[in-house]
Amino acid sequence: MADAIRNTSFPPEDDSRGARSVVAILDEQMARGELQLTDLGKRLLESRRRIEQSGVKLLNRQELDRERIERRGGIAQQ
Questions:
Q1: Cys-Cys with 59: which of 26, 36, 38, 63 at CB 3.0–4.6 Å?
Q2: What is the pTM of this model?
Q3: Cα distance between residue 40 and residue 57, in whole Å
Q4: pLDDT tens digits for 35-44?
Q5: How far is CA 13 from the centre of its chain?
Q6: Where are the domains of the chain?
Q7: Distance CA 63, CA 10 (A)
Q8: Rounded distance, CA 56 to CA 7, Å?
Q9: Cα angle at 27 between 61 and 6, to 5 degrees?
Q10: Would you state the pLDDT for residue 74?
């Protein structure tokens, strides 16, 4: 699965610009037998599917880093 995720952008680009979602890419790889997920991986993928379908905007790398720092009480870890 690491290779599948490594070959996709993080977070995925906005679909309005023609980018494919991580869920779609992983679904295709599983259908071709190139990828097998653990039970945890399946649950995480299903969560990601629900988030994408809801239309909630995903955080970009900077927003994710800022959120992480805020949740750690303003302390950035390296």
A1: 63
A2: 0.58
A3: 23
A4: 999 999 999 9
A5: 11
A6: 2-71
A7: 12
A8: 23
A9: 35
A10: 78
